[in-house]
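Possible regression after last week's pipeline update?

I re-ran a chain I had predicted before the update to compare outputs. Posting the input and the new output here so someone can diff against the archived version. Not blocking, just want to make sure nothing changed silently.
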Amino acid sequence: MTKLACIKLIFVFLLIQSAYAQKTKYKDIYALLTSKQYDAAEPFLRKYLAETSDNPNAYLYMGIVLQEKSQKDDILKQTSRTISRIDSAVIYYDKAYKAITDKEIKKNSEFYQAYNRRDLRTGEFGVKLSDIQFDLEKRMEGLRERIDRVKMTKHYFTLSDTLYKKTNRLYRSLQERYPGAKELYLRADESTLKDLGTMITRFDSCLKAFDQYKSSINLVGKTRYNQTLSLEKIEDLKTDGLAVVSFYDADLKVWDYKTFAVESKYAIEKEIWPLKERVVAYDANFNKLTEKVMTQGVSVKDDISSLNDNSLMEQLKKHDKEPLPEQLIALKIANLEYRFAVIADKQLTDSSNVAAKLKVLGNEVKYLNRLDSISTRLLSDDLGKRSLDYDHFVKNSFGSATALKSFITSFKDYSARELSNKGRQLATKTESLKWIVSGQDSIPLFTNAKTSLYRPLIVMDEKYTAGLYYADSVSPSAYLYSINASRSPEVKVKFPVEKESFNPAKFASAKALGYSDNAGQLYLLLLYSEAPDANQAISVSLAKIYKSDGLAWSANHKLAFLPREMLFSPESGEITIKGEGSQQSILDKNGKLVR
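New output (post-update):
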C-alpha cells in the first residue's frame, strides 16, 4: 500500500468514526473492505446492515468477512463457532445471490470491480452478473462442504480421544485389581479376558478413528494441526500406561494398549489356563506316592524320577520365577526322601557299626533340614497373596488357603520334632565315636583326656590307640586297644611299665611309637620318657601283641638316645629303634637287646 493510499484510508476511518453516531455510509465502509481490513470493518458493516436491508454488496462482503474469520478459528476447540460463522457466511452469500441483478451492477458498478473481467468475445472489460453468481455458487458450495468436513473432523477427533480415554480407564481398572503382570496372568478370570478383549477393540477403534481424523482434516484445508501419532510399548503394568495424553499435541505419544492386551490375553488363554489342570494332576500323583510310602513302607525314589515334569514348571516360570506349586511339590518330595531314607537305613540303624549309624543319621538330618527349610520359606513368604495367584490349584488340591497353610505348618512342626530327636541321636553317636567301650571301661580316642584313667599317646584312625593307664599313682601300665566300627575292641592289652619314668606326674614327658601290619594281626608298641633318669639314660617299654593271642611279651630297657623311629623286619622279627643320626638299637623277636 502506497503512502497516499494509507493517508486516504486513515482519513476514511476517521470519517467513519466521526460519523458513527450518525447514519453509516456504505462507501466509507467499502474502503476498509477492499483493503481487507475485515476486523476493523465488521462492526460498521453490521451496524450498516442493521439499518439497511437493500444493499446486496454489503451482504456479499458480510459473507466474505465471516468466511475469512471462520478460517482463523480453531476447528477442534472452536468448532461450534466455526460452523456458526460458516453458516452465517452462506446465509449472507445467498442473500447477495438473490439480490444482485444487472440493474444493481450498473447502479453500483464501483462496488463490483473485483469481478471486472475482459470479455473474450468483445475484448471489452466489464462486470457480468453470471460471473458474480458463479463465484457465489462456488463459495456457498465450498462452505457447505467445509461444514461437513469440519463436523467430520471434529467427530473423528473426539471419537479417537474418547476411545483412548476409555481404554486408559479400563487399563487403570486392571492395574488396580492386579499388582503386576504376574498376578494379572495367574489370577485372571473370565471377566479379565472380557476386559482385555474390550481393550483390544477400543484401542483398535481409537487408531482407526485417528486415521479417519487425519484424512478428514487434510480435506478441511490449512489448519494449525498436524499431529503425528507414535505407540509406546507397555513394559511394566505398575508404572506404564497411566498418563492420559492430549490429542491436541503435535507429537502424540500414546500407550500401545492393544499390543499389551493381545499379549496378555494370549499368555492367559494359551499358556496359563491350559496348565491349571496339569498342575492339579501333577500334585495328586505325589499325594499317591506319599500314601504308598506311609501304607506300604517302600521306597519310591524311582517313581519320583519318572513323575518329574520339568516342562510344566518351566512354562510356569515364564511368568513366575518361583511357582508356588513347584515349592509345594518340593516340600512333598523332601518328605518322601526323608521317609524312604529312614526305611532304607533301617538295617544300618540296627547294626553295631557306630560310624555307619552316624552316617545314616547325617543323611536323614540332611533331608530333614531340606524339609524344614522349604516349609519355613513357604510360611515366611506372603502365602496369602501367593495362594491368590494359584487359586485354582489351592482350592482343588487343598480346599482353601487356610488348609494349605495348615498343611505346610504340619510339615514345619514335624521336621522340627524330628530334627530335635535326630540331633540328640547324632550328638550321642558322634560322642560315642570318641570312645572305645571295653567292659566297664571307656577308653578315649582323643588327647587331653585328663579326667580319664586312660591317657592316649597314639590314636591311629580306625586302627588302634595306645597310651598309659593309671589305676592308681603307684603302678602305671601301658595299654593298646584296636579300633573298629562298633567301638568294641577285638585287641585289648595292658602291660606294666617302669614306675619311676611313667608315673602320672611325668606323663607330659611320655611319648609313644607304634606299628601294625596291614592285616591288623600284629602290633608293636614302644613307650619312652623324654626325661632322662639319674644316669641320663632314656627309659623305654616295648611290647609285642598279636590279635589272636594278645600280649606276646613286654620288656623295659634303657637307651642312650631318644627314640625317633621304630622299624620291624617281618623276615627276622627284629625291631630297630632309631634316634638322631646313626643312633640305633636292635632287639630280637623276643624283645632282647642285641646291640
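Follow-up from reviewer: compared with the archived run. The mean pLDDT is 89. Marking as no regression found.
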